[in-house]
Design a protein that fits this description.
- By secondary structure, the protein is of the alpha+beta class.
- It has a four-stranded antiparallel beta sheet with strand order 2-1-7-6. It has a three-stranded antiparallel beta sheet with strand order 3-4-5.
C-alpha cells in the first residue's frame, strides 16, 4: 500500500513538472515578433508584427522584378513576385522564426525574430 502512494506521488509530481514546462513554452511565444526584410543583404524594413492594426501591403523591387509583401497582425507573406519560380509566394504566411521566406532571384529574405518568434528554441526542439 505504501509503495502505491509513492508511485502516485511521483506521477503527480511528474505531471506538474510537465505542465509547468508546457506553460513556460507557451508563455515564451506570447511576446512580440519582429519581421526583418532584407534586399541584397541590406536591411530594408523592420515590422513589429504584434503592433499591426490594419492589414497592409507594400512592394520591394529586385533584380528579377518586384515582390509584394502582405502584412497582417502576427504574420507576413509574399503575395506576388516577379520571379519565374514563385517559391516565395507558395511558402505562404510565416509567424515565427523557424523558416524564413527567401526569393533568390530578387535577393529578398524575410526573417521573423524577437521575443515571441523562437523563444530560444529551434524547429527541432519545439
Amino acid at each position: 500500500m505504501k509503495n502505491t502512494k509513492v508511485w502516485i506521488l511521483v506521477t503527480v509530481l511528474l505531471l506538474a513538472v510537465c505542465l509547468a514546462g508546457w506553460l513556460l513554452v507557451l508563455g515564451g511565444r506570447a511576446g512580440s515578433a519582429t519581421a526583418q526584410i532584407y534586399q541584397g543583404g541590406q536591411l530594408v524594413r523592420t515590422i513589429d508584427l504584434s503592433q499591426v492594426g490594419q492589414p497592409y501591403s507594400f512592394s520591394v523591387d529586385g533584380p528579377a522584378g518586384g515582390n509584394t509583401i502582405q502584412v497582417e497582425q502576427g504574420r507576413i507573406r509574399v503575395s506576388h513576385a516577379g520571379c519565374p519560380d514563385q517559391v516565395c509566394v507558395q511558402q505562404g504566411w510565416i509567424a515565427d522564426g523557424v523558416v524564413p521566406i527567401v526569393c533568390l532571384p530578387n535577393e529578398l529574405v524575410i526573417q521573423v525574430g524577437g521575443d515571441g518568434a523562437e523563444g530560444g528554441l529551434d524547429g527541432v526542439s519545439r
